[in-house]
């Protein structure tokens, strides 16, 4: 989830006097880094996934499920292997990192995947093994699920069971969330929680619209008196599920994919091209319909996380006239990006950007071009929440810590990532961040490979999906609606458009034209599977790309399974996890059609999910019928054949 350096963390009050200094030096660090590495060229298209998992504990006797707050203990054991490998000089199969919740762990492949198409065949096997390795460390009644837990914040939701203590400032005075449910093995998570509350001037308020079922009272006003007094619950809105802690959002799980680009230009270009795709993936991956044990009127975590880290003051939120704050800011620091960053995309930047003139000027004086300077300056309207007393003074030539502390707490749908100063093997990257994590490894591999294939296809055909950036914001809202795949239309480019101004390495040279007006509303099915006499569909474009590449039989088979699956999710033939979960709840005998998803239902839901995720049970409605040929390694013969093909096609091109 971001920077994990250590030291003595400053409180919000202690941070204030250092904010300007941190920002000034963060910008200086970025400028230095940019110029040192801007001409870095020729990095391979490497990529990798990140999956966040929830550790669950069943109480079979009482038919209750809790999250098991053992992440720290598990991580110690999982990371021990990394230390041994470092000593022996052997490769890691996975890397494990902490996440916000004391019950969460985040896993990535040990090494990034490379440019060979055959890599697509080893993703799922790595995900499977990753899960098995965690499961081996679990106790009898525990399991590891790649989901966002539906009962976060209900009484007794953690194991060990620690009640929330609203007098505890470290727990941000939540009436639902105990401090112990935050990962305390690293100070980052508690700091962020406290300092977000400090900056905002009150605890966060998350109000998710309740799903109005036949027996749901209307207006729906929850009696919260058992949790706290009127002061503790004053932000609770009628007809909403109320939550008051960062964990309700950041304690949700996702699937992210990071790509390394050939150079900085390609990274900036990809950032832009993938941005309009983010809402499409959010809708297609919808997996989170229940919050605090209640059916909500949305299918995804996005706005909930956004509100859970919303550190804007009342003035910044436009609720009081500006006096002490500089701007009214439309979005929380977790939300969709406000601007494209590749020079030729700026015609599509139609959202007014707030930024500090001094910071912007510092970037311009540091020879950062205008679009990038605006992006960075706009990110820097956010204050740092993690400042360590010992680490304020830094060598700006060598460190990028002050830059990173702000960059890594701007949680947007896409992230543009400069190479780290101390890892010469890593180049310019972009991260694709909206996808909701899926229940099974097959699905996660399918979404991950789909996004990577999309990238390869876009680069190879130099296609452009740009639209005014405000439309992406609009699409993100639509993507979260119930069954958005079927119920919503999305603004999208009408036909196929080639990008005339793709970076040089993509062989583009022409000047950028005026922004295209060729945008219409399309369903997810039309965007993914194509429209008669219109947009051909992302899947058929990917298939065309694959036809032009040399792909071994097994990999092609696996990719086909993934594409078929995504295609069927887009038509609705296969349900999203959100849809499937709603159906499960609605047909459960203990459900009273009053939006309340009680312990018994959640217990049965988790048991079913566990069975499906482990392969014990197969669910056609959720997964369709598939047989992936995923394998643990690329065989030497396949590797040799593909490498040979690449070399000969390069020779032909010269
Ligand atoms: N868990 C967050 C999400 O679901 C992401 C945290 C991170 O940036 O790793 O979007
Ligand atoms: Mg994470």
From TrEMBL:
It catalyses: L-cysteine + L-glutamate + ATP = gamma-L-glutamyl-L-cysteine + ADP + phosphate + H(+). Keywords: ATP-binding, Glutathione biosynthesis, Ligase, Nucleotide-binding. This is Glutamate--cysteine ligase. Belongs to the glutamate--cysteine ligase type 3 family. Pfam families: GCS. One of its GO terms (biological process) is glutathione biosynthetic process. GO terms for cellular component: glutamate-cysteine ligase complex. InterPro entries: GCS, Gln_synth/guanido_kin_cat_dom. It comes from Caenorhabditis remanei. It is an enzyme of class 6 (ligase). It comes from the Eukaryota. One of its GO terms (molecular function) is ATP binding. Its EC number is 6.3.2.2. Pathway: Sulfur metabolism; glutathione biosynthesis; glutathione from L-cysteine and L-glutamate: step 1/2.
């Amino acid at each position: 989830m971001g920077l994990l350096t250590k030291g003595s963390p400053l409180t919000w009050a202690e941070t204030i006097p250092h904010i300007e200094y941190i920002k000034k030096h963060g910008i200086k660090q970025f400028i230095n880094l940019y110029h040192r590495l801007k001409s870095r060229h020729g990095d391979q298209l490497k990529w990798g996934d990140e999956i966040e998992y929830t550790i669950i504990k069943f109480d079979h006797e009482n038919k209750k499920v809790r999250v098991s707050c053992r992440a720290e203990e598990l991580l110690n054991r999982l990371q021990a292997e990394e230390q041994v490998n470092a000593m022996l000089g052997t490769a890691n199969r996975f890397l494990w990192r902490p996440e916000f919740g004391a019950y969460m762990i985040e896993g990535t492949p040990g090494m990034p995947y490379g440019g060979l198409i055959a890599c697509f065949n080893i993703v799922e096997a790595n995900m499977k093994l990753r899960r098995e390795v965690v499961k081996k460390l679990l106790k009898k009644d525990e399991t590891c699920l790649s989901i966002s837990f539906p009962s976060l914040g209900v009484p007794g939701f953690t194991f060990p069971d620690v009640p929330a203590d609203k007098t505890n400032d470290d727990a941000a005075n939540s009436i639902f969330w105990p401090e112990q449910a935050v990962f305390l093995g690293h100070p980052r998570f508690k700091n962020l929680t406290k300092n977000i509350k400090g900056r905002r001037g009150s605890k966060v308020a998350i109000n998710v619209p309740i799903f109005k079922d036949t027996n749901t009272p209307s207006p729906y006003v929850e009696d919260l008196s058992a949790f706290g007094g009127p002061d503790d619950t004053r932000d609770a809105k009628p007809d909403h599920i109320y939550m008051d802690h960062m964990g309700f959002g950041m304690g949700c799980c996702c699937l992210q994919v990071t790509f390394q680009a050939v150079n900085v230009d390609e990274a900036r270009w990809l950032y832009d091209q993938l941005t309009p795709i983010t809402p499409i993936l959010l809708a297609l991956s919808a997996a989170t319909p229940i919050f605090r044990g209640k059916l909500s009127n949305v299918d995804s975590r996005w706005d909930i996380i956004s509100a859970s880290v919303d550190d804007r003051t009342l003035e910044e939120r436009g609720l009081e006239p500006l006096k002490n704050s500089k701007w009214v800011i439309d979005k929380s620091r977790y939300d969709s990006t406000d601007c494209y960053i590749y020079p030729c995309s700026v015609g599509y930047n139609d959202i007014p950007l707030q930024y500090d003139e001094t910071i912007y000027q510092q970037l311009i004086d540091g020879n950062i071009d205008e679009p990038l300077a605006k992006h960075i300056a706009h990110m820097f309207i956010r204050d740092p929440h993690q400042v360590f007393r010992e680490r304020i003074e830094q060598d700006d030539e060598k460190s990028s810590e002050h830059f990173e502390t702000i960059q890594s707490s701007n949680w947007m749908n896409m992230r543009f990532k400069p190479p780290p100063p101390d890892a010469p093997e890593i180049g310019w990257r972009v991260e694709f961040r909206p996808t909701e994590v899926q229940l099974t490894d097959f699905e996660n591999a399918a979404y991950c490979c789909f996004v990577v294939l999309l990238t390869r296809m876009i680069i190879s055909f130099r296609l452009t999906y740009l639209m005014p950036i405000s439309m992406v914001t609009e699409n993100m809202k639509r993507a979260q609606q119930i069954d958005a795949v079927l119920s919503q239309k999305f603004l999208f480019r009408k036909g196929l458009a080639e990008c005339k101004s793709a970076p040089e390495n993509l062989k583009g040279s022409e000047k950028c034209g005026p922004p295209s007006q060729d945008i219409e509303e399309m369903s997810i099915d039309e965007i993914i599977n194509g429209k008669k006499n219109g947009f051909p569909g992302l899947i058929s474009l990917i298939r065309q790309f694959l036809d032009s590449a040399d792909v071994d039989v097994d990999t092609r088979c696996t990719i086909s399974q993934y594409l078929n699956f995504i295609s069927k999710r887009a038509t609705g033939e296969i349900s999203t996890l959100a849809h499937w979960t709603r159906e499960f709840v609605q047909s459960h005998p203990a459900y009273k059609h009053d939006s309340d998803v009680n312990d018994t239902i959640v217990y049965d839901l988790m048991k079913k999910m566990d069975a499906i995720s482990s392969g014990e049970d197969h669910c056609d409605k959720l997964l369709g019928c598939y047989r992936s040929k995923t394998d643990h390694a690329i065989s030497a013969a396949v590797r040799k054949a593909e490498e040979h093909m690449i070399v000969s096609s390069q020779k032909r091109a010269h």
